[in-house]
Amino acid sequence: MTHTGSGSTYDPKARPVLTPAAVREHRPPHRTDRPVALVTGASSGIGAATARRFATGGWQLIVSGRDRIRLEETAAGTSALVLPADLAAPDGPRLLAESALRATGRIDVLVAGAGIGWAGPFVTMPAAAIDRVLAVDLNATLLLVREVLPAMVSAGRGRVVLVGSVAGCVGVREEAVYSAAKAGIAAFAEALRQELRGTGVGVTLVVPGPVDTAFFARRGTPYQRTRPRPTTPGRVAATVWDAVRRGRDDVYVPGWLTLPGRVRGLAPAVYRRLLNRFG
Fold it and tell me: Is this model's pTM higher than 0.85 or not?
């Protein structure tokens, strides 16, 4: 089996999630005047690296994921607020957004980094696994953005950062559902960007190739390709930071990953021959 992925860090085997009531208890003693970044999937990988990068930049952090212990490790040495939450739960996105806004009074940047993967022939993929990948990688992201956006629009500022994947651009065999979910995120980013024109709120789509995280191991099979080589979570985090500072709409890590999409648009037959060979 072959694998690509964003390196996002939603771990279905993580330690138990706090109850909604317990989530609401975790708040700082007062609101902050510093810009606030809410980072999901912050237990490890891209999310953890991104959270640390924003902390270095002087931002107030809210870190979320299912594993409280790992979140506290991410938050160590910072003033980050730890809000464990299961975004796949029916009320997960709403509870997280409400708790974050109640605690800090603002969310200037949402980095939606939570995600899971599944690899193998589509015909062997259990229905429950299909539902889970779509629920975490697509539905939960859309629901969380919907909960956070009104406050941003009301404030006239903010940025939504969506973590996609090269799999959503090219379609990767034996990752059909993951590819579909990430393609959905890409289309959502473009549509939402158009809807938010003139509001002061921007949308950034970050498209990483394979990232050296536990993402692949959690699916049961490590990354086995020789190309492209996995990049580091820190490199993706630096790209997210730069994209937020510059207000960029689409960023690829590494940058040459823009090429497959260009070839697909200009020469689809050539693109598919290459995909059949290397995809």
Answer: no
